[in-house]
Amino acid sequence: MASITLQGNKLETAGTLPAIGSAAPDFKLLNGELGEVSLKDYQGKKLVLNIFPSIDTGVCATSVRRFNQEAAKLPGVQVLCISADLPFALGRFCAAEGIKNVATLSAFLDPFRSPSFGQDYGVRMVSGPLQGLLSRAVVVIDAGGRVVHTEQVPELTQEPDYDAALAALR
């Protein structure tokens, strides 16, 4: 388990992020058309998994906007913005903001799926008022499916280190 905070109050996650150098765990998540997507669907691409609690919060929205801007500059990179929000909420936000350079994926049915993204990536919050949602984290995966960078943001109200994630792609 990882310990994080929400406005200074301690929370726990289901585990820890995948180890650097390890094969990225497979997952099953829903896209905006309610289709199931897995890691294999992005085979051969460099991936940034931008993981967050809810698109309807300021920091989460900022991370989606920022990765959207940065992704447009990097060939062969796909940013996956992942939360437990309904696919409709993620799509609504991106449409309203004109966001086109990221893919949004929903883990809202995650506890009922195998493999479980929240469990296998160690980001499902298991205590506190946001229990069941995903923590704020970034995982970068190279084109060969290996984890090359991870960040579990220690305080949910903080933004991730965008520069470190983008540097791992180069």
SSE order and pairing:
Blueprint: E1 3-6, E2 9-12, E3 28-30, E4 36-38, E5 46-51, H1 58-71, E6 77-83, H2 87-97, E7 102-106, H3 117-120, E8 137-141, E9 147-152, H4 162-167
Task: Write structural notes for this entry.
The structure is a single chain. The longest helix has 14 residues, at 58-71. Helix content is 21%, strand content 25%. The chain has one domain: Glutaredoxin (3-Layer(aba) Sandwich). By secondary structure, it is an alpha/beta fold. The mean pLDDT is 92. It has a 5-stranded mixed sheet with strand order 7-6-5-8-9. It has a two-stranded antiparallel ribbon with strand order 1-2. The chain has a two-stranded antiparallel sheet with strand order 3-4. It has 4 helices and 9 strands; from the N terminus they run βββββαβαβαββα. It has helices at residues 58-71, 87-97, 117-120, 162-167; strands spanning 3-6, 9-12, 28-30, 36-38, 46-51, 77-83, 102-106, 137-141, 147-152.
